[in-house]
Specification:
This protein is mostly beta strands and about 260 residues long. Helices cover about 0% and strands about 50% of the residues. It is built from 1 helix and 16 strands. The strands form 2 sheets. Strands 1, 2, 3, 4, 5, 7, 12, 13, 14 and 16 form a 10-stranded mixed beta sheet that branches. A hairpin with a 7-residue loop joins β9 and β10.
Length: about 260
């Protein structure tokens, strides 16, 4: 989720492997304990509310970017049945100096947790619908841009395609533009069930995994600074386009867990 316009192996259960031919039923279950890795951050979202010692509930800049339409409001975030749920809906709210037609949710670990290199993973179910844009990504801490690592971006009108991108500063405008190495992979309908998305970030290389299978890698200008986590559900914007009459609201981006490891 580039801020343009902003002014290792997975452990897969035998069940998941056995169901590899059943589309949305594929669920790579990643163990908390991975050989060669030490768990440094996790949230299973099993409490009664969001753990505010781990998460912020506002955008780090509280400003429009990418011509998106939503206002990020804390009331669009909830914990229910062991899930973090970000809700997008048609509801007016004042945000970044004007009234927005949609509200949605964002959580970040800015200034609460950041890490340079390691394994970063999420198990989630994305919403389907024109103009919806769920993402799990990372930025430098304290907040700045670029660089940026997009672990997961999916456009709601093509819920079977995941985008994976490494952004770095553009030499002609290092604080206002980026260059990038991106990949995409067309798989199952990721809105039909929960799936695991991860990166392994090592010195000089980043590798992206979907349900335990490597789908992209980048060795271009790999970041070398601690980065924090962002999970958000954007509405509209230059890339996904705006919602239309077919877009179902409210829409939910549901997260089962988030986990981070470092190499031992």
């Amino acid at each position: 989720m580039a801020l343009t316009g902003f002014r290792s192996p997975l452990l897969i259960s035998a069940f998941a492997l056995g169901c590899a031919g059943f589309g949305g039923e594929v669920k790579a279950q990643e163990d908390r304990e991975l050989p060669g890795w030490e768990l440094t951050f996790s949230d299973e979202f099993d409490g009664e509310g969001l753990d505010r010692k781990k998460w912020n509930v506002t955008d780090p800049w509280e400003a429009e970017r990418n011509a998106e339409l939503q206002a990020y409001v804390p009331g669009s975030i909830e914990i229910r049945n062991g899930l973090l749920r970000l809700r997008a809906e048609r509801r007016k709210a004042f945000y970044d100096n004007r009234v927005r037609e949609f509200t949605s949710g964002i959580v970040t670990t800015a200034r609460k947790f950041s890490q340079k290199q390691g394994r970063f993973a999420i198990r989630c179910r994305i919403p389907k619908g024109q103009g919806l844009w769920p993402a799990f990504w990372m930025l430098p801490d304290p907040p700045s841009w670029p660089p940026e690592i997009d672990i997961l971006e999916i456009l709601g009108h093509e819920p079977d395609k995941v985008y994976m991108t490494n952004h770095w500063p553009h030499p002609d405008n290092p604080t206002g533009a980026s260059k990038s190495n991106g990949g995409e992979w067309k798989g199952v309908d990721f809105s039909a069930d929960f799936h695991t998305f991860a990166v392994e970030w090592d010195p000089g290389e980043i590798r992206w995994y979907v349900d335990g299978v490597e789908r992209h890698r980048s060795a271009d200008q790999v970041p070398d600074v601690p980065m924090f986590l962002l999970i958000n559900l954007a509405v509209g914007g230059q890339w996904p386009g705006n919602p239309d009459e077919s877009t179902p609201f409210p829409a939910w981006f549901e997260v089962d867990w988030v986990r981070v490891w470092k190499r031992k």
